[in-house]
Design a protein that fits this description.
Number of domains of chain B: 1
Oligomer: heterodimer
Shape of chain A: globular
Structural class of chain A: mainly alpha
Shape of chain B: globular
Largest interface: A-B, 46 and 48 residues
Order of helices and strands of chain B: HHHHHHHHEEH
Strand order of the largest sheet of chain B: 1-2
Helix content of chain A: over 70%
Radius of gyration of chain B: 20 Å
Structural class of chain B: mainly alpha
């Protein structure tokens, strides 16, 4: 139940894009059509779900004072996290290419992009600061990824419709995308009242 | 830096250390090529800290430091970095600089370090840093890359501070809360300023809580882009 709670909280209430602005770059760049947004969203869920437990193991087994090395090495955290993320993305890319060429073709270009998606590194850093345990961090990763997926699909759908509306010229493109994101953020706030115990 | 320019064999005469071209590198990102409103890079993360001005100023300084020195080092190493692994090399340079910033801030001002929490670490994945390395430093000499880095950091910081001033002023009625310079400008004193006798005008003003929510930052940036493009029509998105 605790895990469901964390999943819902990270997906809706503390949405990575709408609350913390994480992964804004690819969120704005790849949200022109729903199809590509869907691919990128799936890839983010996937990578967040994988890197989160690995980074948890690194923090708790290697870097902490009570870990295997017996030294406080937290200052190495950023470098190790980004290395894990970069290599996991590479690995995931190779595995998908080998076993599911269809999925690889649909995700293809988006996978390398994910390395520099702040949502992934941000997720890992939040996981550390919130002191989750291993299973909680998996739930947090999947929930955060799912929230990101929902947000990018929603904005892509809105932007597809927006092509037919008469937006003032200087606001076209980027400006209106920001304002819509702000409105979506407000809409997601209404989910604050969700009681996860009801699930 | 001067030696690196002088060493360049094909340069017929020594270029000035700070001529019009160099000045353009610094000022361009503040207007025509602003990282946030024009290039749309680096919106990630850092905006979450803009509820208060003081942490935003510190965040801006951190970003300027990282963009400037990562550009400088990448540019110095640009001829010896193999093309296939350049991303990893760049990431390592950036991550090292960010770690330095993080440790220095932790030692100097723990309060702000806690407020910025994970967002200092997230400068690593801030696209503006990587974007400038790829687009500029890999092809330019160190001194100019350094200036380009500072310019882009400043263009980024400027937007960050504008957003923070608007959000703090209308959301909490204060400016620079949490720092020694804290002042209450409008409305009732906020929780961040303990001195309740602080001078305050317009006592009837009720703090607008919307400004503290993340949505407000998006609106402000949307409107900033609107204003910027109205004022500078060549930036209008034609598609």
């Amino acid at each position: 139940m605790e895990l469901v709670n964390i999943f819902i909280k990270s997906a809706f209430i503390e949405n990575l894009v709408l609350t913390y602005f994480l992964g804004m770059c690819s969120y704005l760049a790849v949200s022109k059509t729903v199809k590509t947004a869907f691919g990128l969203g799936l890839a983010v869920i996937f990578v967040l779900g994988i890197t989160m437990p690995i980074n948890w193991l690194i923090t708790n087994l290697l870097l902490s004072e009570t870990g295997l090395l017996g030294m406080d090495l937290t200052f190495l955290r950023l470098i190790l996290f980004i290395a894990v993320i970069a290599s996991m993305v590479q690995l995931v890319e190779m595995v998908i290419e080998k076993f599911s060429p269809a999925l690889y073709n649909s995700l293809g270009i988006f996978l390398p992009l994910i390395t520099v998606n702040c949502a992934i590194l941000g997720g890992s850093l939040f996981m550390v600061s919130k002191e989750y345990n291993l299973s909680e961090s998996v739930a947090f990763g999947l929930g955060g990824g799912f929230g990101w997926f929902l947000a990018i699909i929603a904005i892509a759908a809105i932007r597809e419709k927006l092509k037919y509306s008469n937006v003032p010229a200087p606001l076209r493109g980027l400006g209106i995308a920001f304002i819509i994101t702000g409105l979506m953020g407000l809409a997601f706030l209404s989910l604050l009242g969700i009681d996860p115990a009801a699930f | 830096m001067a030696e690196t320019i002088a060493k360049k064999p094909e340069a017929k005469e020594r270029e000035p250390l700070f001529g019009p071209k160099e000045k353009k590198l610094l000022t361009d990102p503040l207007n025509d090529n602003n990282p946030i409103t024009v290039q749309v890079l680096g919106i990630c993360s850092a905006l979450a800290v803009t509820t208060l001005v003081y942490p935003s100023v510190i965040m801006s300084i951190a970003v300027v430091f990282v963009t400037a020195f990562s550009s400088l080092f990448t540019s110095l190493l640009r001829k010896s970095i193999p093309k296939q692994v350049r991303m990893i090399v760049q990431l390592v340079i950036i991550a090292t600089l960010v770690t330095i910033v993080e440790q220095v801030l932790k030692a100097l001002n723990f309060e702000v370090y806690k407020q910025l929490s994970v967002f200092i670490g997230l400068i690593i994945t801030n696209c503006i840093v990587m974007g400038r390395l790829e687009a500029f430093s890999m092809a330019n000499r160190p001194w100019r890359s350094f200036l380009d880095g500072i310019g882009n950091g400043l263009g980024y910081g400027a937007i960050l501070i504008i957003v923070a001033v608007l959000r703090e002023l209308f959301g909490k009625g204060s400016l620079f809360a949490g720092s020694p310079l804290a002042i209450q400008i409008i409305g009732p004193s906020s929780d961040y300023i303990l001195d309740t006798s602080a001078i305050s005008w317009l006592g009837w003003y009720q703090n607008n809580n919307l400004m503290v929510l993340s949505g407000a930052a998006m609106f402000i940036i949307g409107v900033l882009i609107w204003v910027h493009r109205t004022w500078n029509p060549k930036l209008v998105d034609v598609s």
